[in-house]
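If your schedule permits, I should be very grateful for your opinion on a structural question. Please examine both parts with care and let me know of anything in them that strikes you as inconsistent. The record follows directly beneath this note:
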Amino acid sequence: MKQIQQSQKIVSKAVGVFSTAVADVEKANDILKKGIEADSMKISAIADQMDKLEEQIRQLEDDKLAKGNEIKKNENLLATLRQFTKEA
């Protein structure tokens, strides 16, 4: 009988160790899942910032184009004015 009790004690201890190991691994997974959620939120925030920056780039490119067109119009006007002043 004593041997059975000793055996059950050893088995109980072993099962307890495994139960603790399972709980520890579950805790580790919870930590990792929270980390994934945090990373996903950071990625989303960065993507939003990138979208805003890309829109700013498009606006600046449009502004450059508009300014270039205005310069061309001014150069045409200058050419006309210079011809007028040469004739006068």
